């Protein structure tokens, strides 16, 4: 009887190695697919929780107003929804505008002063790039007597004034901004807050997070109703009924 030839040890090892490589590739692709699906679910849940927490923060700010200091809290992402592995942290930060240090800033670096043909052209040069705000307007007032003359008629005054309008506009705008900016800064800082909601979770040892930011403005906290002298009606004033006018009694015919 003829004997059959079997597999050698090397052939068996090669076959096992090929099988192991194939199974590793299949399991790796399956693990990546499962991890991607899990990450997508976590990301979808985190987005929903962040939107829910942002709505709660907006409602709290609307009902209770702005606080004088920053708010930093950590807790459940959404009221009544605690069955989750995610954690939420939110901040309501006060906005700080830059100080009005006009002397330290080169505010006129992009502006073209002295472009008018007649007012600043007669032997008096316009202010340069580093001039102080309002220099063009002050130059116009200082040279008014020499540029216009004593017996200048209305047409000449208008011509001289319009001739330096290009250089004056920038100076007047800078001067007005210097006067108005401190009040605007206080109003914006009092009536503006930045809400940031961050939802974080772990997948294995790696931490992931999603973050939402939103700016909230409140005219009540900014005090615009008082500053505008009652031009903006409050809710109580709008709810008050107006007194009806008494009807006039008709006159009897003679």
Can you offer a commentary on this structure?
By secondary structure, this protein is of the alpha+beta class. It has 2 domains: 137 residues, no CATH class; 76 residues, no CATH class. The protein contains 8 helices and 4 strands, in the order αββααααββααα. A 4-stranded antiparallel sheet has the order 1-2-3-4. Helix 2 packs across helix 5. The longest helix is centred in the first third of the chain and has 56 residues. The radius of gyration is 37 Å and the shape is elongated.
Would you kindly provide a brief summary of this structure?
By secondary structure, this protein is of the alpha+beta class.
Order of helices and strands: HEEHHHHEEHHH
Please give the domain count: 2
In helices, the fraction of residues equals 40-55%
Structural class: alpha+beta
Shape designation: elongated
> In whole angstroms, how far apart are the ends?
150 Å
Topology at a glance:
Layout: H1 9-64, E1 71-75, E2 87-94, H2 135-142, H3 144-148, H4 154-163, H5 165-191, E3 192-203, E4 206-217, H6 219-222, H7 224-227, H8 235-239
Helix pairs in contact: 2-5
Salient structural properties:
single chain, 254 residues, alpha+beta, 2 domains, four-stranded antiparallel sheet, 4 strands
């Amino acid at each position: 009887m003829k004997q059959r030839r079997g597999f050698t040890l090397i052939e068996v090892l090669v076959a096992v190695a090929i099988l192991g490589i194939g199974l590793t590739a299949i399991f790796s692709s399956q693990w990546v697919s499962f991890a991607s699906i899990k990450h997508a679910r976590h990301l979808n849940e985190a987005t929903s929780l962040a939107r829910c927490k942002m709505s709660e923060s907006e409602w709290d700010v609307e009902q209770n107003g702005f606080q004088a200091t920053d708010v930093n809290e950590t807790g459940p992402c959404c009221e009544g929804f605690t069955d989750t592995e995610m954690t939420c942290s939110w901040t309501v930060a006060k906005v700080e505008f830059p100080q009005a240090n006009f002397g330290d800033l080169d505010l006129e670096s992009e502006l073209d002063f002295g472009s008018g043909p007649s007012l600043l052209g007669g032997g008096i040069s316009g202010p340069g790039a580093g001039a102080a705000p309002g220099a063009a307007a002050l130059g116009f007032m200082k040279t008014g007597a020499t540029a216009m003359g004593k017996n200048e008629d209305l047409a000449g005054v208008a011509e001289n004034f319009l001739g330096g309008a290009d250089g004056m506009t920038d100076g007047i705008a800078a001067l007005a901004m210097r006067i108005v900016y401190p009040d605007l800064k206080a109003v914006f800082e009092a009536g503006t807050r930045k809400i940031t909601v961050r939802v974080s979770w772990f997948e294995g040892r790696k931490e992931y997070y999603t973050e939402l930011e939103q700016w909230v403005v409140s005219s009540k906290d900014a005090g615009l109703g008082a500053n505008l002298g009652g031009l903006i009606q409050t809710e109580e004033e709008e709810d008050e009924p107006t007194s009806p006018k008494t009807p006039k009694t008709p006159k009897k015919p003679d």
